[in-house]
Design a protein that fits this description.
alpha/beta; D-Maltodextrin-Binding Protein, domain 2; 5 helices; 30% helix
Length: 150
């Protein structure tokens, strides 16, 4: 939600934090939190490098001088969770993904030192009246995000 064209309006929703996801039996699983430095020692199941999520994660790692080991690349977060569950590696996912995907057999830990997060918002075309359906979904999304995904 950084730089938007002049034709786009944005209503901020808040910040979404990222979590590390790993099998429950992983050596880091007993921890209360994990750092990118710890994650860098592990193979990762990741989204493609052209995805906004992957660019956010890689930029945060680069800022700390860390090179992540993207071992497996997938296009869907559901596939990410399945491959992590199968033991192919850890994943770094937005908190919203943790809330909506099956995490049976998985442990999720917040990433700290510093916290990894991104800004979220609703975008619309400027000068265009939203339809009743768009107003309804916007209201629903804002109400859900009023309780943060921390």
């Amino acid at each position: 939600m950084d730089e938007l064209p002049d034709t786009i309006a944005m209503v901020p929703l808040g910040r979404e934090v990222f979590h590390a996801v790993m099998p429950r039996q992983h050596r880091l699983a007993p921890s209360q939190r994990v750092t990118l430095k710890q994650i860098a020692r592990e193979p990762l199941v990741s989204l493609p490098n052209d995805s906004r999520t992957r660019r956010t994660i890689d930029a945060a790692a680069s800022k700390q001088g860390i090179k992540l080991q993207h071992a497996v690349t997938v296009t869907q977060l559901a596939t990410t969770m399945s491959l992590v569950r199968a033991g192919l590696g850890l994943a770094i996912v937005p908190a919203g993904a943790v809330a909506v995907f099956n995490t049976d057999g998985l442990r999720t830990l917040p990433i700290t030192g510093p916290t990894l997060s991104r800004n979220l918002g609703l975008i619309t075309l400027k000068g265009r009246e939203p339809t009743p359906a768009a107003i309804g979904i916007s209201t629903l999304i804002r109400s859900i995000w009023s309780t943060s995904w921390d």
